[in-house]
Amino acid sequence: MAPPRDEETPLVAAAAEDDSPAEKGRSHTRDVHILSSAFLLVFLAYGAAQNLESTVNNVGDLGTTSLGILYLSFTFFSLVASPVVRKLGPKNALILGTSGYWLFIAANLKPTWYTMVPAALYMGFAASIIWVGQGTYLTSTARSHAKDNSLHEGTVIGQFNGEFWGMFACHQFVGNLISLALLSDGTGGSTNGTTLLFSVFLVSMTLGTILMCFLNKRGIKEEEDSQGPSLTFYASVVSLSKTVIRPLYDVRMLLIIPLMAYSGLQQAFVWADYTAYIVSPTLGVSGVGGAMAVYGACDAICSLAAGRFTSGLKSITIIVSAGVLIQTIIFLWLLLIYSPVSGVLGTVYPLIMAAALGIGDGVLNTQLSALLAIYFKHDTEGAFAQLKVWQSGTIAAVFFCSAYISLQAMLVVMLVTISIAYGGFIFLSLREKALSHSSS
Fold first, then answer.
1. DSSP classification of residue 249
2. Which residues contact 326 (CB under 8 A, 6 or more apart)?
3. Which of 30, 57, 141, 377 has the most neighbouring CB atoms within 10 Å?
4. Closest CA to 374 of 314, 312, 315, 294
5. Interatomic CA distance for residues 165 and 163, integer angstroms
């Protein structure tokens, strides 16, 4: 007589439990938590270091020039980042990308033209693949979570982006508080203080890199590996050209590009002009860390809130409109009314501006990522590569031109750009609404 099979039942049940939607859901959310925490550890170091570059490496404009070279390299390599991420897979791209940030921080321990410039060039490559990898990985995780749990895809994408960008925005708050604590004189002029600061930053980046190793593999690399041998060189070049050019044939991408460019422009405005022309004259160099901490805190809160309310194009339109309005008011205030004052108002006004600019940045980060994830499901890498091309290109332009353009001229540029970007976005929203009505 055959032996009873009851003993196998627990194993079968355990296997079934491991593949249950609840277990898969925990795996997806776990990966979002890990990804968000790892980026926080990496960028709390890089973000704070970036804010200090013009202060601690001001001889020969080494710091500002290095950042300009970095973002110019970032722009170029973003054009080729998509096939690199496809080849490596999003997880491996994320891990490799952290090496560039680590090297750039290490170069600040011995800042010379021979250390900073090569590190900036390599970091441009690393930044391109880490950000394309991030967009691809997060979108893949959100789609898998929505599919496995029978949830609305747009809502899940919004929630996951909200959590990620909320955690990411905290890097400005945490990193600048660390800077304030370790650079007690507020000038960044102490060699011992800056050495300790950048050493702490290296430890933080190392922890972030280790954390990324615990991510589950996601994306399309495994599917490609199962389809056969790799492409020939010629086919790879053709594939690359299609990746770069193909998104530009999509009207939706052309209408989103001005908003991408503006999102980079407003970030560079905060890093280069707001800190130099608004914060430093009233709060001093020591106040830069505090103002940027407020900026980061509001950015984080807004990102979390915006992600929770994102479900589709209608909600994205409302949220983007609110963020654009807030930033427009700040630019008009600075251009037409604002002048530095002493006393309590002299402290409060820059902090109010920091809060408003942080809210606008949180809106753009979450909504642009959600918009690309919803519209470009079949070319996620190419869409996020386009995002980083336009963002990093405008950031590089600001860093190179900031020394030669006045605050008033920059504000005019910001207002013109935000008008064009918002106009294109509203046209996209109305166009998609009309198309959806005609097809229904």
1. G
2. 356, 359, 360
3. 141
4. 312
5. 6
pLDDT tens figures, 278-290: 887 887 766 777 8
Residues 376 and 247: beta-carbon distance below 8 Å: yes
What is the Cα–Cα distance from 187 to 125, expressed in whole angstroms?
Answer: 31
Q: How many whole angstroms from its chain centre is CA 103?
A: 19
Query: What six digits make up the tokens of 136?
Result: 């691809």
Cα separation of 93 and 76, whole Å?
A: 17
SS3 label, residue 286: helix
Helices (H), 250-342: 251-268, 280-283, 286-309, 313-332
Which amino acid, residue 266? Answer: Q
| Identity of the amino acid at 186 | G
- Tell which residue, 377, 438, 424, 365, has the closest CA to residue 162: 365
Q: Give the Cα separation of 237 and 80 in Å (integer).
A: 10
Condensed to tens digits (0 to 9), the pLDDT of residues 223-245 reads 344 344 444 444 545 555 556 67
Quick count: other Cβ atoms within 10 Å of Cβ 160? 29
